[in-house]
Amino acid sequence: MAIHQLTHPLVKHKIGLLRAADISTKQFRQLASELGSLLTYEATQDLATETVTINSWNGSIAIEQIQGKKVTIVPILRAGLGMLDGVLELLPSARISVVGIYRDETTLQPVPYFQKLAANLDQRLAIVIDPMLATGGSMIATLDLLKKQGAKHIKALVLVAAPEGIAALQLAHPDVDLYAGAIDLGLNEHGYILPGLGDAGDKLFGTK
Ligand SMILES: O=P(O)(O)OC[C@H]1O[C@H](OP(=O)(O)OP(=O)(O)O)[C@H](O)[C@@H]1O
Ligand SMILES: O=c1cc[nH]c(=O)[nH]1
Ligand SMILES: [Mg+2]
User: Fold this and answer.
1) pLDDT per residue as tens digits for the range 36-84
2) Which ligand is nearest to the CA of 199?
């Protein structure tokens, strides 16, 4: 598994702003979306292109376009939705496959509750988005589910990852590339990332 920790100054700056205790819902949403765009830019660097001929203002010319079926973006509900607008800014025609999973607060085990996936998953790049990779349970369950439905080419985009989650992901899905805005120190006794962002879903949805 390739692990890409983004080092772009804009990413570092925006992740830093996200960590402020007094951040507003509006600011948190805006930054999560912007970081979604920056992670997408990085994660799509190796997309294959093909040459096609089009009619331009000055006659026939050859242009490059992305090859193959449209990408599918896979937000993990709820918090993954916070990155979706930013990802769509760069991939406006992408199909969206929604996966609903929450983490049981006591056992920290992922609990799936919804899925609605794009067709022909085997022919698409699937870009899974979730702000937090903590124990890795939710991401691993999502990748299990996508592969069961035929997905073969998957990338995972997170704002903050814990080393524990990266190790678990590496073991379960060594073929999936991870793109992280930051790799933090570790998890506390409740499974929260330190220094982390706190509860990303609650901050995005204003539920706490
Ligand atoms: O790596 P893990 O240990 O599985 O933890 C990470 C998961 O926890 C959070 O979701 P949460 O369960 O809070 O659901 P929410 O997005 O609905 O708030 C987060 O958005 C991830 O999906
Ligand atoms: O730190 C964490 C861990 C799981 N979910 C979150 O929202 N934050
Ligand atoms: Mg949450």
Assistant:
1) 999 999 999 999 999 999 999 999 999 999 998 889 999 999 999 999 9
2) 2
Q: How distant, in Å, are the alpha carbons of 24, 49, 114, 146, 157 from that of 180?
A: 23, 25, 25, 20, 6
In angstroms, rounded to a whole number, what is the distance separating the alpha carbons of residues 155 and 177? Answer: 5
3-state secondary structure at position 135: coil
Distance CA 135, CA 201 (A): 16
CA of 125 to the centre of ligand 2 (A): 26
Q: What is the CATH number of domain 3-205?
A: 3.40.50.2020
Q: Is the ipTM of this complex over 0.90?
A: yes
Ligand 2, atom 2, residue with closest C-alpha: 192
Q: Which of 174, 116, 191, 184 is nearest to 140 (CA)?
A: 174
Token readout for 52 is 């096609």
Q: What is the 67 CA–ligand 2 centroid distance (Å)? A: 36
Q: Say if pTM beats, i.e. exceeds, 0.90.
A: yes
Q: Is the CB of 160 under 6 A from ligand 2?
A: no
For ligand 2, is residue 132 a contact (CB within 6 Å)?
Answer: yes
Among the atoms of ligand 1, which is closest to the Cα of residue 135? 3
